[in-house]
Amino acid sequence: MRTKEFNEDEALEKAMQLFWLKGYNGTSMQDLLDGLGLSRSTLYRAYIDKHSLFLKALGHYQQFSSSEIKKVINEGDTAKETVKKLLEFIAEVVVQDQQHKGCFMLNSEIELSLHDKVVHDMVVNSDQDIEDVFYHVLTKGQKRGEISKAEDARAMAKFFLNTAKGIRATAKSNPDKKVFKDIIALAIKALN
Amino acid sequence: MRTKEFNEDEALEKAMQLFWLKGYNGTSMQDLLDGLGLSRSTLYRAYIDKHSLFLKALGHYQQFSSSEIKKVINEGDTAKETVKKLLEFIAEVVVQDQQHKGCFMLNSEIELSLHDKVVHDMVVNSDQDIEDVFYHVLTKGQKRGEISKAEDARAMAKFFLNTAKGIRATAKSNPDKKVFKDIIALAIKALN
DNA sequence: TTGTTTTGGGAATGATTGTTCCCAAAAGAT
DNA sequence: ATCTTTTGGGAACAATCATTCCCAAAACAA
After folding, report:
1. With the CA atoms of B71, B72, B75 and B79 taken in that order, what torsion angle do they form, in degrees rounded to the nearest 10?
2. What are the residue ranges of helices labelled H in chain B?
3. Domain ranges, ordered by start, for chain A
């Protein structure tokens, strides 16, 4: 038996970068062949077709970015500080990227969720995932008495998710760290 | 001389709807020929090529949507109410659309602004335009003493623009009027 | 009528799309 | 050595892509 020569994870990572940068329709199979450095035969045998490869790449992104965000949950002494850290982290990620690719999940939502049921469901789940992170921190803060119980924690979680999506959208054409910092400071006022 | 038979504005409107629904790369010239009901010769003579037609359609959208928003400036008795009306209007527009096309400018930002300088500039200008609407209302409110001068009006304007973009993004996969209402109510708290 | 201009039909372009297939080379296992 | 499996090269596919072109029909002005 011949051992596998190409690293599947490495190839998937490269595919993700390409789809992330140029979108689904903007990325051709030729782009992928060149980018991954694989032959047609190998690529099709490994990933079936373009659409399957895309879904796998998007799933890979979701797994990674979700776990990264959850690392931030334990940062900050108070719930309010943690919410701020979460938003700052989300902003930092898109600002740091020299290519301004934005958020791959948001990009896919805009480009495909209307006509691709699978992508649509992944987007909804991804949003719910982030919303739940905020919700978890907020309810904990309410129990501790750090955050008023006057406002519904679920509504606040949706609000912060919305702020995050705004930042991620703007990151495509106007990634400005200082502006995002101001936006986050104002968003945090919703906790007063 | 033979009089022009096809209505240019009507055709442009149809082209805008198509690009809006399926994106630039997702819309083929054949889609446009079928959708506009024009012959190849006529379409190319009138609009030069696909990219030019797209830019014209996006410009048409920008003109229309900008003027619609500015109609709301005079609604509401206080600045705070006007800001709320502005956000509610932006949410209402995307929620009403049965097709969930979202915001054409935001869609184009995500799909093209990275690789298309003209689109990028249009997006930046469009964002600035909306930001300025908020800024105008906010500074007026500050002069009237309705809004605290502790916060920078420019920062607040960027914050509300960000909230609007979040709503417009989410409208693609999750247009929920009630959720948007909650989000807007919390965003308004930034004015306290 | 003649002339001018607009439109549509349709053929033709060359490039690119995603995908399938065959076969030889490579690399390890036996 | 043979066997098995993985990989790459490259041809081939039909479909679609954006675009150009020619010409006849249509509609108005003179």
Report:
1. -130
2. 8-22, 29-36, 40-47, 50-70, 79-96, 104-112, 117-144, 153-170, 177-188
3. 59-191
**Amino acid of residue A20:** W
Q: Confirm if B31 and B22 have CB atoms less than 8 A apart.
A: yes
The class of domain A59-191 in CATH terms is mainly alpha
Average pLDDT over residues A186-190: 96
Do the chains contact at B186 and A156, CB–CB below 8 Å? yes
Q: What percent of chain B has pLDDT over 70?
A: 97
Residues of B in contact with A163 (CB under 8 A): 162-163, 166
Q: Give the CATH number of domain B58-191; options: 1.10.390.10, 2.40.160.20, 1.10.357.10, 3.40.50.12500.
A: 1.10.357.10
CB A146 within 8 A of CB A80: yes
Q: What is the DSSP letter of A90?
A: H
Q: What is the pLDDT of residues B110-132, one digit of tens each?
A: 999 999 999 999 999 999 999 99
φ, ψ (nearest 5 deg) of residue A178: -65, -40
* DSSP summary character for residue B72: G
- Token pair for A111: 């480009």
Res B83 pLDDT > 70: yes
Other CB atoms closer than 10 Å to residue A91's CB: what's the count? 24
Size of interface A-B (CB pairs under 8 A): 136
Residue with tokens 């782009």: A31
pLDDT at position A2 over 80? no
Contacts 24+ apart (CB under 8 A), A39-46: A42/A6, A46/A6, A46/A8, A46/A11
Contact B99, B21 (CB under 8 A): yes
Contacts of B110 in chain A (CB under 8 A): 102, 106-107, 110-111, 169, 172
CA distance linking residue B189 with residue B21, whole number of Å: 34
